[in-house]
Design goal:
Layout (H helix, E strand, L loop, with lengths): L3 E7 L2 E8 L2 H16 L9 E8 L3 H19 L1 E11 L2 E10 L2 H4 L7 E2 L5 E5 L2 E9 L1
Antiparallel strand pairs: 1-2, 2-8, 3-5, 4-5, 6-8, 7-8
Helix pairs in contact: 1-2
């Protein structure tokens, strides 16, 4: 299974999907897909980092929480992120995101992501790797 991310259409919202060799890597790739909804991740310099810690009763809810924390950080810090590191420890996630302040002229934001939903929420092994997906409200 190739590591990567993609978007998939869903009514008025947008689906995002991350794939990786591990659940943590799939979470990282999905975070990159989240950024790619807003701007080209290649245009975002990983200059500053933030830490995100969260916990949930299962991997699916942990994944939604991870994305929602990133959405919150993007909105409150007015930042975009282009590099992610996730470590999963049972029901806990320890993550870092690297990025920079939003520069509308350079990043040309396309949409504002409001949050991850539970629609199509899935974290599961698939074809020799892992998939993490959900629909986000834009």
């Amino acid at each position: 299974m190739a590591t990567g991310w993609e978007h998939f259409p869903h009514a008025a919202d947008m689906g995002l999907r991350g794939r990786g060799a591990t659940p943590a890597e799939a979470f990282e790739q999905a975070a990159l897909a989240l950024t790619a909804l807003v701007a080209d991740p290649a245009s975002v310099q990983p200059r500053d980092s933030i830490t995100i810690d969260c916990a949930a009763p299962d991997r699916e809810l942990l994944f939604a929480d991870w994305l929602n924390r990133l959405v919150y950080e993007m909105a409150t810090r007015r930042m975009l992120f282009s590099r992610f590191a996730v470590r999963l420890d049972g029901a806990r996630l320890h993550g870092r995101a690297w990025g920079e302040p939003l520069d509308p002229a350079r990043h040309q934001p396309a949409v504002e992501v409001k949050g991850a939903t539970y629609t199509a929420l899935r974290v599961a092994p698939e074809a020799g790797g892992w998939i993490a997906q959900t629909v986000v409200d834009v």
